[in-house]
Amino acid sequence: MDQPSPVPDTEISLTFVKGLEVLRAFENGQTDMTVADIARLVGHTRAATRRLVRTLESLGYVRSIDQRYRLTARALKLGLGFLQSRSIGHLVGPVLRTESIVIGESISLALLDADEAIYVFHNPADKSAEMSGHTIGSSMSLARTATGQAICAFLPATRQQTILATSGLSETEAAYVAKNLEDVPAQGFALRDVSPQSDLLALGVPAFNVNGQIAGALSIVFPTSRYSMTQIQKDLVPHLQRCATYLVSAL
């Protein structure tokens, strides 16, 4: 996945676009919202937003509890077609499970989508392992995460500049990330703190499609003290790179 293909304005349904914007308003932990909350997020009038929300409610994609709306399980079907058409579970699952057992770490796959990355598969090392706050379908910054930087490093320079300029990073932070992006192709991975408050590191390794274009990244998250840099380079990166090689046909 990459940038959306350009379509003439005369062939675009603005009402449909607005409906999708309402659905996307529920991303990033936004739940149980009023019509006013949704209208504020999408930038439409309350009246227009109410019609869109009520339409989605009639179709079963949202439901109302005390005038607050939340997505229903039916919304999952919107992404299921993609996972099935690309055989994500069938092709990706066995590869990630095998390598996850070998290294004893949970492995995730995220794919490039416009100017963000979206998680599409996660294989936990054990039943208690989680995705460090992310779930399948959640998106992440190409500038602020190891997964994103492993992808962003292989995008054209002008696009990298646009991503950094719109990332919300300070000028100093953006310059630091830009330097990191220069190093990723040579070292083969990106490494970054999950957050300033945590003692977790995220490791991202780029994944390419059959045409040699960047398609996504594989990642693992682990405590800062678990591995030395030498161990990361010798014990973890090669396994993720092997995963990426096996997954070329699926990306």
In a few lines, what is going on in this structure?
It contains nine helices and eight strands.
Description:
By secondary structure, the protein is an alpha+beta fold. It folds into two domains: 9-72, Winged helix-like DNA-binding domain superfamily/Winged helix DNA-binding domain (Arc Repressor Mutant, subunit A, Orthogonal Bundle); 86-250, 2-Layer Sandwich (Beta-Lactamase). It contains nine helices and eight strands. The chain has a six-stranded antiparallel β-sheet with strand order 5-4-3-8-7-6. It has a two-stranded antiparallel ribbon with strand order 1-2.
SSE succession: HHHEEHHEEEHHHEEEH
The CA-CA distance between the termini, in Å, is 8 Å
Number of domains: 2
Oligomer class: single chain
Low-confidence stretches: 127-131
Quick one: how many beta strands? 8
Record the strand order, biggest sheet.
5-4-3-8-7-6
Highest-level CATH class of the largest domain = Alpha Beta
Shape: globular
Count of DSSP-assigned helices:
9
Mean pLDDT: 87
CATH topology of the largest domain: Beta-Lactamase
Largest sheet: 6 strands, antiparallel
Which architecture name of the largest domain does CATH use?
2-Layer Sandwich
CATH superfamily of the largest domain: GAF domain
Helix content: 40-55%
Structural class label: alpha+beta
